[in-house]
Specification:
Blueprint: E1 13-23, H1 34-43, E2 52-58, E3 61-64, E4 75-86, E5 92-99, E6 106-114, H2 115-118
Antiparallel strand pairs: 1-4, 2-3, 2-5, 5-6
Keywords: Membrane, Repeat, Transmembrane, Transmembrane helix
GO molecular function, one term: AP-2 adaptor complex binding
Pfam families: C2
Length: about 120
Amino acid sequence: NLLLPDGVPPERQWARFYIKIYRAEGLPRMNTSIMANVKKALIGENKDLVDPYVQVVFAGQKGKTSIQKSSYEPLWNEQIIFTEMFPPLCKRIKIQIRDSDKVNDVAIGTHFIDLRKISNEG
C-alpha cells in the first residue's frame, strides 16, 4: 500500500535513469588492509594502493562500476541504469567512491545529487 505525496499522479510511467561515471582525480593515498600493514612492518614494502570503484544508490537500488586496480586516477567510462517510476519519490542520488578490500570496502568520498536542482519542473 503506497501513499503518494500531493501532486504525484496515482498512475505513473516507468522511466530509465542513466548515470554516467567517467573518471576520478586526486584520490588520497590510503592503506586500510591489515596484510599491507604486516608487509610494511616485515619487509618494508610501502605501497598505499587504492582499488577504487563507484557505487551509486537511487530509490533503494544499488549499482556499481568495475574495480580499477592500483589507481589514483581511475578511468571508468561506464554507465549505470536504474529503472524506476516517474516521477521518482526519491529526491536524491548518492554517489560514493569506495576502495575495494578483501575484508571490508572503505568509503573514500560521498556526494549527493539533488534531483530538484538538475531536473525540469515539468
